[in-house]
Amino acid sequence: MPKQIKTAKLTLDDKTYDLPVYAPTVGPDVIDIGKLYGQAGVFTFDPGFTSTAACDSTITYIDGDKGELLYRGYPIEQLAEQSHHLEVCYLLLYGELPTKAQMIDFETRVTRHTMVHEQMHNFFRGFRRDAHPMATMVGVVGAMSAFYHDSTDINDPWQREVAAIRMIAKIPTIAAMAYKYSVGQPFVYPKNDLSYAGNFLRMCFSVPAEDYVVNPILEKAMDRIMMLHADHEQNASTSTVRLAGSSGANPFACIAAGIACLWGPAHGGANQACLEMLREIGTVDRIPEFIARAKDKNDPFRLMGFGHRVYKNFDPRAKVMKESADEVLNLLGIHDNETLRVAKELEKIALEDPYFVEKKLYPNVDFYSGIILEAMGFPTSMFTPIFALSRAVGWIAQWKEMISDPAGKIGRPRQLYVGATMRDYAPVETR
Ligand code: SDX
Q1: The domain that contains 34 carries what CATH number?
Q2: What is the pLDDT of residue 418?
Q3: Is residue 43 part of a domain?
Q4: Which pLDDT band, with edges at 50, 70 and 90, does 217 fall under?
Q5: How many domains does the chain have?
Q6: Ligand 1 in contact with 359 (CB < 6 A)?
Q7: Which of 65, 72, 124, 237 could bridge 261 with an S-S bond, Cβ 3.0-4.6 Å?
Q8: Could you name the active-site residues (predicted)?
Q9: Whose CA is nearest to atom 3 of ligand 1?
Q10: Ligand 1 contact, 279 CB (< 6 A)
């Protein structure tokens, strides 16, 4: 439990209530209102949780004003430059960077779990070929609880550990199978002598008819995209995983819930929506028309890939992603990419527009990622599944942290009820 540093006083109807205030290691202090209802008979009201800390955590810290993102204290820019996704997985799960021996052991454990139960192949065949890969992933990841019973007892630390390894190891395989199924190509088994990112690329793009060699440029870009998406504090999908887990649901069901939440265009679905928006804009001369629509209160259109609940400065991941987009497209010899040109001009115009400046709307992680993924050969329908497979480690790390907290209890928010007061049933003849 955090340490109380001072007391906040709430005065209501001439009564004053003392509320403990806790200090973080970094970031805003928090006021503990856990006993407020019992003391004052009132709820607090914060739809969207704009001012509410739902838990204490040691995993990821975001400073929205400075545009800072730390995984266990390490800045995302340094990790993106010097680390790799599996090392970041270790860091998020266990709290420290691994020694060489620890990394070898972790990598071996993950690599040895990359195959899925052969019977799971039948699951895919139950979907229509044109099913969105996110629909398939929600279904198949949820079904993991029907195949891996020996790692669903959340009260057994060893089973929690096995479930975490299985989730990180198998979700790229499942995402690749969802893709292969959608394009009518045979599933590709993982190959244990490849890197995590290289294995995923091969499972997506290799075909039995010819040899496949992992392109190191794409492998590095894929690995960096995975690192950048790995965790992000208490975002909507992570909060979904935590809430599902607070009831004691098994980890695979909780991750499936997180995947479902991530699919929304306001959240992880924004990378697909953003690329489709850039394609719809088409050319630089049409940007003003879309900027005007984004500012029009009567038009539901928003600039996808722009804005963020927490970042009121540049999303540090967007900066790394933008550099990576330039690097990957150049290395791939794609120089006249109209979509990238439109994205850069749109960013420039928007950041000079008073509407976006006043509302502190900057490009977020989803603004450039789609350009890289498209250049790598992925259809837009695979953008959010790639976000999901990257975020799986963050979800499972946050789930483990919550489950192992002895003070944990089921999440059960209250409400401001504004519906009908009690009234008697009226027989249909009288209505
Ligand atoms: C992710 O939470 C996380 O950490 C998420 C994430 C992660 O790693 O898990 O970072 C991943 O989900 C990134 C966000 C991807 N979504 C998009 O790019 C969709 C477009 N963005 C918006 O829908 C919006 O910015 C949100 C949903 C991201 C944030 O919405 P908020 O915090 O609820 O803010 P808001 O909707 O109240 O907007 C504040 C104002 C509004 O205007 P007013 O009502 O105050 O006049 O800004 C406007 C909005 O209309 N606004 C936009 C805008 N985003 C906000 N106007 C035009 N275009 C936009 N993109």
Answers
A1: 2.20.28.60
A2: 97
A3: yes
A4: very high
A5: 1
A6: yes
A7: 237
A8: 308, 366
A9: 235
A10: no
